[in-house]
Amino acid sequence: MLRSARYTSIFFAAALLVAGACGPATTPGASGSAGASPTASAGGAAGTLVWYSDLSDLISLDPGVVYEFSGTLLAHNTYETLVKFEGADLATIKPGLAQSWDIKDTGSTFDITFKLKTGQKFASGNPITADDVVYSIQRAIKLNKSPAFLFTDIAQLKAESVKASDPSTVVVSLPKTASTQGFLSILTFTIGGIVDSKEVKTKESGGDFGSGYLLDHSSGSGPFVIDHWTKSTEVLLKANPNYGGTKPTLSAVLAKHVPESTNQQFALEKGDADIAENLSPQQIKALQGKAGVTTASGNSLQLVYVGMNSTVKPLDNVDVREALRTAVDYDGIVNNLLSGNAKKVQDIVPAGLAGYNDATPFQADVAKAKALLSKAGQTSITLELLVPTGPAPGGAQWSDIAAKLKDDWSKIGVTANIKQTTQAELLTTYRAQRGQLVLILWGPDFPDPDANVGPFTDYNAKSIAYRNGWNDASIAAKGRDAALVTDPTKRAAAYKEITEYVLHNGPYVILYQPTKQFGLRSNVKGFVWSPVDWTEFAAISK
Residue 39: pLDDT above 50? Predict the structure, then answer.
């Protein structure tokens, strides 16, 4: 069943892998010319974009392995996929290496036939064929690394599900319980990156499918190739001379590992960095108006929310849950605590994805909230609010958001006793259904509404609905059915019905969707941040 898929938070998965990022040191390798690396002093040089970021989560540059923020950013710019999203639009799937695709219901499977564009080449000069596509998908399945579940659990693929019918045609057979739209969305992610099978096969060692080589080399057809990765220091990308799309203006991108945000800001102001990724809201504010620099923002797909355990009285009462939603000052959280670094979103599907519902009916109505509590026979309620330590997405501290919620709820007779703990400890309690009110975040595993609707509605998926003890079989079935709809208009209508229901009946207080802030040199043009957490370096000029 699709709903038994392993739904996990991207944020949490990345956090766990950061802890494991202290693996064996890599040695610089070349994929393309192995010239001298631009240094920090070259920041601002024509043709080279210098990107300052915390790259501590970088464990591999292999598209079949990467599942961390830094790795996906770099792999996305070195590999192409069959289909893709463009810019910040995650609602419209467009051609990539495939010029067209057709979905056919065979009765027992959904067969998706991809026709490749002609004349395309890898960076090596080898032509891109259907055999490369089959090899790439089968390779990711057989490697069985962090992102493999997207193919094996979500799309329910086996290696034999992918076949080449001729040199330019690939047929992928999905079981009828898998979502074709979800699979197409998965193909836009880095696990869908197509590798040069002829080159990679020559690099295989001990059954590793070339992952040792692709750890710090590239073998793709994207606009850039990996020149080298010096662990804990930098990754240098160079323009791919055989790239089949619009040639990038940049000749190179140097991603520098600079974990301290103060050092990033200093380098940006000095001109050593062209883009700084990890600046705080206070630093962004300080940059505004300064000569030579500017700022930019982009959405993420994360949602910050409060889970309400419906097995805990009186949270089992739908009117009590509605009262808690109704009492929250959402505008105060977004505008004051987060300084506008977030979007007020109250839907379980984030803005940017197909199926997003922009309705925001709740905003600090104390009288209405009290009336709802009265209807439920409640006048005074005391509950425990579990809160992570550290900063929340958007720049505020988790503790400050919790204090705001506590104050808002106190106005309707609800006492929230804040208990702050590490995110790992909080998740252990939450996953065991032992939380009462839980302040936490969620990020989808792939850019499709099913990646949120499934976890938030289906108790049997053992994810978010389960953690909050909410077992509504009817809405879970509607979520499963919506995932399988192939017509985009009908699918959007199905998700609108689902999200409207969850908005008022589910055990969630969706607080906001954070935005991500960047500092840029003023001469940097064409920068657009995708909610999937990457940018197209090929679209940037300076």
Answer: no
